[in-house]
Amino acid sequence: MADFENNQNIVHKVCRIYTTNADAHNDLFQEITIQLWKNYSKFRGDAKFSTWMYRVALNTAISLYRKSTRAVKTQDISAIAFKIQSHDYDDTEEQQLKQLYKAIHKLNDIDKALIFLYLEDKPYKEISSTLGISEVNARVKMNRAKDKLKKILTP
Question: Residue 21 — φ and ψ, nearest 5°?
Fold first, then answer.
């Protein structure tokens, strides 16, 4: 699966959207890889390999996310551990990205997928194909997801 090796960043990006710590990221990455391997024989080539990969990765993440909402929530120790900060380092952009990801984590699973694909600069045609919805529906849902993010990010 050379195509997988060339596109595995897609899986890592999906994992980052749907997980909050390294262990969960690794677990989800492994599960998505297994699903890609199991379903590779079903890939017909109707769409680009990367589009098919997005679809499998997002569907796997969404399925596991829905199951995990029934699980007990724990806090990642690195989120509360003491960290030494350098005064010379400007972490404004990093903090903005963290805030964005924190806000994205508050969205429902479909909105997360929409925002993820939007941030990946995917055209609405590909977004609609990946998520199995019409292009018009993708645009409407995207505008609503953006509004939700604005509300979350506005103090």
Answer: -150, 170
pLDDT value at position 95?
83
Tokens of 122: 């995917």
Direct distance between the N- and C-terminal alpha carbons of the chain, in angstroms, rounded to an integer: 46
Q: 27 φ, ψ to 5°?
A: -65, -45
Task: Please write the tens of the pLDDT for every residue from 78-115.
Answer: 555 554 444 455 677 788 888 888 999 999 988 999 99
CA separation for the pair 32, 50 (Å, rounded): 14
C-alpha distances (whole Å) from 37 to each of 10, 19, 28, 54 are 15, 21, 14, 14
pLDDT tens, residue by residue, 72-81? 455 565 555 5
CB 134 within 8 A of CB 128: yes
| Per-residue buried b or exposed e for 42-59, using 16+ beta carbons within 10 Å of the residue's own CB | eeeeeeebbbbbbbbbbb
